[in-house]
Amino acid sequence: MRILLTLLLVYIAYPAVAQQENDLGTEAQRAEGKEVYDIKCAHCHGYEGDASAVATPYLRPTPRDFTSGNYKFRSTASGELPTTEDIKRSIRLGMPYTSMPAWEGILSETEITNLAYYLKTFEPAFDGPYGNPTVVEIPRAPSYSADPDHLARGQEIFAANQCADCHGENGRGNGESAPELVDDWGDPIRAADMTKRWTFRAGATREDIYRTFMTGLNGTPMPSYEQTIDAEDRWALVDYVWSLSRDTPDYGTTVTVQGRSGELVLSEGLFEAAPEVYFPIVGQIIEPGRAFYPGVNGISVKAVYNNSEIAIQLQWHDMTAETDGMNNPLIEVPMFDPAQPDTTMDGWSDAVAILLPSRTPEGLERPYFMFGDSRFPMSIWYTDLATDSAAVLIGQGSGRIADNGIALERSASYEDGVWTVQFKGPRNQGELTMPEATFVPISFTIWDGFNGERGNKRGLSAWYHLYLEPMETQSSVLPMAKWFLIVLGAELLIVGLVNLRARRRKTA
Amino acid sequence: MNLFVLLAIAAAMVLVQFGVTRWVKLNLLAWMGIWWVALWAAFSYGINPPLPNSIIVLFMAIITIALVAYLSADNEELKQAQESIGRFMVTRQYRVALLIVMFLIPAAVAAWTFSSMNQAPQPPSSGRTIHPPPPSSITFQGTSINLTTANNPLRELQHTDEAAFAEHVASGRRIYFENCFYCHGDNMEGAGMFAHGYDPLPANFNDATTIAMLQESYLFWRIAKGAPGLPSESTPWSSAMPAWEDFLTEEEIWEVIIFLYEFTGFEPRAQGMPH
Ligand code: HEC
Ligand code: HEC
Ligand code: HEC
């Protein structure tokens, strides 16, 4: 009886005790954490946890400075420290679309726990009175509702709380104040593009989105709305944000180009029925002008053709349209240009290019994807969006790019965070032909002028394909009948001969 | 690999081999037919990404030849098989079955014609010569390097001057994080922050089939010449692997090679052994 009573007392008293004691792990756990940290984390986060190390200058966003105590992902209120479990989650899942890897599967659960305790040693506050913050309760998500009234309510909340100021009216990261945002370390930062939820740092489930605007992201301009948004409106806001994006990027590999009879007149309607494919864009990080954080991370492509021409439409999200100034693939840029310029870099316009091989490739041969090479040059459909013209350039490598004098037809428009650029050119250009039913290699390059991208500082893609779908598909009825009859004839012959022989043998 | 399908096929074949044959004496021809179908199913549905049709046809042709050779190796069995086919074609009792078979074979051929004509077009597959043979010598920044005899000049420091060796490793680390980890990953598993943008994926150095089985001179060639330096008969042509001779010195390349081995814990393959 007495034992039971003591147990009961301990049980009641326990939460109070836990409140006071900070979860800092044991000496041994922290020491083991340090061992792993120095091998796996220090080259980005610094041996002293202060984000100064070999790799740090080449990374945007900058690896977290653990001495700041600022953690983006937290289950705790705005401005507070994270819990041990929060830190462990960040280590486990990483931060998508940054250099912070997901360590789940590489490190054991014990190692991750030890690491979390070691990270806490970099910030003395973890050992102080604020070291054990309370967790903001996240209720279980009700199931998603696409009810128009519900989503409209969400959109109202989105508008009423100025989410659009940073994230843009339709959530494309193109809000009015977006270009001026900086984080607590002075680096420019971009408001998340809500139409690409796979890029969310702190997770992309509906509970994650709820938690993100309830707790805010420390160290960034993303505030907490715990006090401002009523409980009954929160899931409407979550579902509205959720409705803006598909689940996954769904990266494709081939653009199916549809045939059209008659002239191709560049317009919105021309591409209406054509299938759309989305490709990843990554930074050029090889040659001088390395782009560690390209302004654009994906491009959507559609294309159609007729008997002599091909028209290609490119669309991508861009926070601002730079239509002043100039750009050119030949502009020289230092190897390590500032990773992201501090203010709007006046003078560089947005630009885009479609890259094709300069001749029809044999088999799998390709020009080197950067700007081609002397062995196999590239044909570059280039347009500077400060102008209204486009031309074909021939590339034999960076710095070896020449205009070959062929003009292309082009149209371009920018609306609510989306660039739409359409090109039209001949299907046969010099040694490059694009016959029906063939695969033509294609890749893309985007220069975000706002991000100081110019020359070789750019976002680029690897090689993908265009496939020109035949205008008339051959009926398979005749070949099927032909093969049926041929095989049947052969069978009849064999069976006939065997029977004949058997009958002869019988009569003999 | 589509393990589920492969396991199902393997289980079915075990059943045929050890179960069914115990109750029913399987005709040799039927046994061969079952094997043929099982292998065809394994090639067609058991492998991911799917093999191109032409490869499957090639494999099946080889298997058919092998089965026929197996059959004809034994005169007695060959004769038996011939006789049973002959009997099937002439005996009145089998007439209906014969007609059905005579209809099904051309129908299958017609169906195959239909499916091959209505297949979604396949982009040229980026086949990959895993480790194409290197040239015997290369010109590196103007000087000629003989790849068959070249050794990593820093390797001997490992035993003679540990401090100097550690310095080169540190330098290799700096070079790796300045140039390589965006693609090959900070953990060298080929999953850098930009790896999702490339096909083929950047090499995974933790995998026992990459640097663990290569000589240092081979790595020197791949790093110095990159994808543009691959011999003209070898893929992958779409590889993004840069030619680092434009940006790194000879010593820097040897240093980064040392770092690759230090970080992964592998030993390079000794000089003189074939690739
Ligand atoms: C290749 C560089 C790199 C390596 C290696 C790396 N990180 Fe990070 N890490 C980053 C970057 C960049 C960020 C910041 C991402 C952002 O702000 O969006 C980050 C952020 C974090 C955060 C903060 C999450 C938050 O909520 O703010 C934690 C915790 C973290 N890293 C732990 C680790 C640990 C532990 C390791 C080693 C096991 C490690 N990292 C290895 C680059 C790296
Ligand atoms: C002052 C500008 C600002 C306002 C206002 C703002 N945000 Fe943000 N938000 C940001 C920034 C900047 C980021 C990107 C943080 C990062 O990349 O680490 C962000 C990120 C996000 C993310 C993605 C989080 C992640 O895990 O990467 C969501 C979801 C989000 N905001 C929702 C909202 C909602 C909902 C509102 C309105 C209720 C809102 N934001 C208002 C600046 C803002
Ligand atoms: C733009 C991305 C990229 C960068 C940057 C890069 N690589 Fe690669 N690397 C690749 C790809 C893709 C492959 C696989 C295809 C191939 O073999 O060409 C590869 C293959 C290799 C191989 C061949 C491995 C094998 O098993 O044959 C070596 C060695 C290598 N890289 C070393 C390096 C080093 C060292 C650096 C930095 C100096 C580096 N790479 C930078 C993309 C990259």
Top keywords for this entry?
heterodimer; A: 508 residues; alpha+beta; Cytochrome Bc1 Complex, Chain D, domain 2; Immunoglobulin-like; 4 domains; ten-stranded mixed barrel; 15 strands; 18% strand; B: 275 residues; mainly alpha; 2 domains; two-stranded antiparallel sheet; 3% strand; binds heme C
Describe this structure in words.
The complex is a heterodimer of chains A (508) and B (275). Chain A is of the alpha+beta class and 508 residues long. The longest helix of chain A has 31 residues, at 477-507. Chain A folds into 4 domains: 19-127, Cytochrome Bc1 Complex, Chain D, domain 2, CATH 1.10.760; 148-243, Cytochrome c-like domain (Cytochrome Bc1 Complex, Chain D, domain 2, Orthogonal Bundle); 254-468, Immunoglobulin-like (Sandwich); 477-508. The model of chain A is unreliable at 12-18 (pLDDT under 50). In chain A, strand 7 (378-384) and strand 8 form a beta hairpin. Chain A has helices spanning 2-20, 27-40, 42-45, 84-93, 109-120, 148-160, 163-167, 206-215, 231-243, 477-507; strands at 254-259, 277-280, 282-283, 298-305, 309-317, 351-357, 378-384, 390-395, 401-415, 418-426, 428-429, 432-433, 439-447, 459-460, 464-468. Chain B is mostly helical. Chain B has 2 domains: 3-117, no CATH class; 137-264, Cytochrome Bc1 Complex, Chain D, domain 2 (Orthogonal Bundle), CATH 1.10.760.10. Chain B has a two-stranded antiparallel ribbon. Chain B is elongated. The model of chain B has no long low-confidence stretch (mean pLDDT 86). Chains A and B meet through strand 3 and helix 10 of A and helix 4, helix 5, helix 7 and helix 8 of B. Residues 72, 161-163, 165-167, 181, 189, 191-192, 200-202, 209, 212-213, 217, 220-223, 225, 237, 241 of chain A line the site of one heme C.
Domain count of chain B: 2
Which strand order does the major sheet of chain A show? Answer: 1-4-5-10-9-8-7-6-13-15
What is the rounded Rg of chain B?
Answer: 28 Å
Number of strands of chain B: 2
Q: Could you give the order of the helices and strands of chain B?
A: HHHHHEEHHHHH
The helix-and-strand class of chain B reads mainly alpha
Taking the sheet with the most strands of chain A, its summary is: 10 strands, mixed, barrel
* Helix proportion of chain A: 25-40%
The shape of chain A is globular
Q: What is the CATH level 1 assignment of the largest domain in chain B? A: Mainly Alpha
Tally of DSSP helical segments of chain B: 10
User: How far is the N terminus from the C terminus of chain A?
Assistant: 109 Å
Q: Which ions, cofactors or small ligands are bound in this entry? A: heme C
What is the count of distinct domains of chain A? 4
**Oligomeric status of the shown chains?**
heterodimer
CATH homologous superfamily (4th level) name of the largest domain in chain B: Cytochrome c-like domain
Rounded average pLDDT of chain B:
86
Which chain pair shows the most residues in contact? A-B, 58 and 51 residues
CATH topology of the largest domain in chain B: Cytochrome Bc1 Complex, Chain D, domain 2
CATH architecture of the largest domain in chain B: Orthogonal Bundle
